[in-house]
């Protein structure tokens, strides 16, 4: 999750997020160099005593400042498209989980297990235990196995919502009447927080998502425990 | 948590833990955008770029004695050297990450399969002993 006053991306939990962070660094370096060049050119323009008011054509400079940005754009577009197609790759998933957006909570259905479904409401501030995070904790966390491909089917029961978990690099719109598919894969165990990312009413900021990734065998125990309950 | 001011220092407040933590955690960003502390290869690229810029600009000045043109050469050198170091370093970093992932997976598999019929070292040893 984010630390106080954090501006950058959260640490990556999934391979896709690692790729996204690397791409972000790549684009940022290009932006930094272009900004430095522009700042330098501005300083040159402000400090020169030379003037030239009768320029008719400037073929060479026009060639340079057309071809160079085209090359830069290609350098940015190729890794971007690579990650875009990588995001849409669907390996054989171990588990399918449905996330349904409501006003103003999420419900989850584990269709691979019979009758395994629950709602996930925000924990109000006055019910928080010491050490828990305000506006991020929920009553029932979504437990998933780590190091397994998980297919998410995301939809909504009423208005538009968006299921987002930044450290996994996932943000998928929950649209009523439509099923959107996303793939999750966590490389490590732990708790990963997200929030609804599409305005959906007065309590839009109060429907968080908490994913709890645990070891495989512990997940099987958790699933069987929920059956008993 | 803010300390209560002493009676003889009415206006003076000690720094709070929160403000110190925020100032400690605030990363240094070049031009306000490039976090050179946390982005792998950024610091090295910028430093090598600066060195390349100084060498190119100063070298050009020594050869031609033209100040403005030398500054242009310096800026151009900075951009080219930074980009070159950046791509070279990131390529090696990506290769290293892949190698780390393979090694980590290999260590985990060795722990899991050691002594079982799936252990590849056991199969190899039995093949060597049969030869």
Report on this model:
- The complex is a heterodimer of chains A (229) and B (131).
- Chain A contains three helices and ten strands, in the order H-H-E-E-E-E-E-E-E-E-E-E-H.
- Chain A has 229 residues and is of the alpha+beta class.
- In chain A, helix 1 (15-47) runs antiparallel to helix 2 (59-87).
- The longest helix of chain B is centred in the C-terminal third of the chain and has 47 residues, at 67-113.
- Chain B is mostly helical and 131 residues long.
- Chain B has helices at 17-25, 42-64, 67-113, 120-130; strands spanning 29-30, 34-35.
- Chain B has a two-stranded antiparallel ribbon.
- At the A-B interface, helix 1 of A face helix 1, strand 2 and helix 3 of B.
CATH class of the largest domain in chain A: Mainly Beta
Question: If classified by CATH, what would the architecture of the largest domain in chain A be?
Answer: Sandwich
Largest sheet of chain A: 5 strands, mixed
Q: Quick one: biggest sheet of chain B?
A: 2 strands, antiparallel
The main sheet of chain A orders its strands as 3-2-1-5-8
Strand count of chain B: 2
Following the backbone from N to C, one meets helices and strands of chain A in this order, namely HHEEEEEEEEEEH
Structural class of chain A: alpha+beta
| CATH homologous superfamily (4th level) name of the largest domain in chain A | Cupredoxins -  blue copper proteins
Tell me the number of strands of chain A: 10
Domain module count of chain A: 2
Average pLDDT number of chain B: 79
Q: What is the averaged pLDDT score of chain A?
A: 91
What Rg of chain A is obtained from the alpha carbons, in whole angstroms? 24 Å
């Amino acid at each position: 999750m984010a630390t106080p006053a954090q501006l950058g991306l959260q640490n990556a939990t999934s391979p896709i997020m690692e790729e996204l962070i690397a791409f972000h660094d790549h684009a940022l370096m290009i932006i930094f160099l272009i900004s430095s060049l522009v700042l330098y050119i501005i300083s040159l323009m402000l400090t020169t005593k030379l003037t030239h008011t009768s320029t008719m054509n400037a073929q060479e400079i026009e060639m340079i400042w057309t071809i160079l940005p085209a090359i830069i754009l290609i350098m940015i577009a190729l890794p971007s498209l690579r990650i875009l197609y990588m995001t849409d790759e669907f390996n054989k998933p171990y588990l399918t989980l449905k996330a349904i957006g409501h006003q103003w909570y999420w419900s989850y259905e584990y269709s691979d297990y019979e009758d395994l479904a629950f709602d996930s409401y925000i924990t109000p501030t006055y019910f928080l235990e010491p050490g828990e995070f305000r506006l991020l904790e929920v009553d029932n966390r979504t437990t998933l196995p780590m190091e397994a491909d998980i297919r998410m089917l995301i939809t909504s029961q009423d208005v538009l919502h968006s299921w987002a978990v930044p450290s996994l690099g996932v943000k998928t719109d929950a649209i009523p009447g439509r099923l959107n598919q996303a793939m999750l894969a966590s490389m490590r165990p732990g708790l990963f927080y997200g929030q609804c990312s599409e305005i959906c009413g007065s309590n839009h900021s109060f429907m968080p998502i908490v994913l709890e990734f645990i070891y495989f065998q512990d997940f099987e125990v958790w699933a069987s425990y929920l059956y008993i309950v | 948590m803010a300390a209560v001011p002493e009676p003889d220092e009415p206006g003076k407040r000690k720094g709070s833990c929160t403000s110190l933590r925020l100032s400690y955690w605030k990363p240094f960003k070049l031009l306000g955008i490039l976090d050179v502390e946390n982005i792998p290869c950024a610091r090295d690229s910028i430093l090598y770029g600066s060195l390349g810029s100084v060498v190119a600009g100063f070298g050009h000045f020594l050869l031609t004695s033209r100040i403005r043109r030398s500054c242009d050469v310096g800026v151009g050198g900075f951009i080219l050297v930074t980009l070159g170091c950046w791509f070279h370093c990131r390529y090696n970093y990506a290769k290293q990450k892949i190698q780390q992932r393979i090694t980590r997976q290999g260590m985990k598999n060795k722990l899991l399969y050691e002594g079982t019929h799936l252990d590849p070292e056991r199969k190899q040893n039995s093949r060597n002993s049969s030869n």
